[in-house]
Design a protein that fits this description.
By secondary structure, this protein is an alpha/beta fold. α1 packs across α2 and α1 crosses α3. The longest helix has 14 residues. The chain starts with a strand and ends in a 6-residue tail after the last strand.
């Protein structure tokens, strides 16, 4: 589980482009668990421009599609804990040029051109030396194994879908999650 510093969350919500925000975005899209406690939540609210809505622009690849139940379940839990309305909007197919992380990856791949990436150490060192838009990459090796194929049971999926408000025009590409109302 990752516990993210409040300043990174605030930069994330304000749409700032920093290496820490890019790391957070990667963690969120990879479905890793991110912890948040009430103190961090209060600090986020004090530093955010909007206390009610969070918009996440996402790649449209299959690893982070609008049908990834584990990630959507975590977004629902986050909405409930924070009281934020979360809107997840996906870039259209074949429009990766609008996605900043895709441009970063393209630059990284170009910088690797001609290098033999024959070990983890070499990859980490080359990636750690990469500079994009004047900012050096922060590179760490994630511990553990990313579990693929983890699925929710059918009844859990029905509960999850009941919490999602999918756009009628773009069902898989524009999803809004409202926090659970507690009276």
């Amino acid at each position: 589980m990752y516990l993210v510093d409040t300043s990174v969350w605030i930069d994330f919500f304000r749409g700032k482009q920093t290496s820490a925000v890019e790391q957070l975005r990667c963690i969120l899209q990879s479905e890793q668990t991110v912890g948040i406690n009430s103190l961090i939540y209060q600090e986020i609210l004090q530093g955010s421009e909007s206390e009610q809505r969070l918009v996440i622009n996402s790649d449209n690849g299959p690893e982070c599609s609008g049908h990834r139940t584990q990630f959507l379940q975590r977004l629902i839990e986050f909405a409930d804990k924070t009281g934020l309305i979360i809107r997840r909007v996906y870039y259209p197919p074949y429009h990766s040029k609008y996605n900043a992380i895709e441009r970063l990856w393209a630059g990284l791949e170009k910088s690797w051109n001609g290098y033999l990436l024959d070990s983890q150490e070499t990859v980490l060192k080359r990636a750690g030396n990469f500079v994009w838009k004047g900012k050096r990459a922060i590179v760490t090796m994630m511990a553990g194994t990313y579990e693929k194929g983890v699925k929710l049971a059918a009844d859990q999926i029905c509960e999850l879908e009941a919490r999602l408000e999918r756009s009628t025009a773009l069902k898989g590409w524009d999803i809004t999650i409202s926090p659970k109302q507690v009276f």
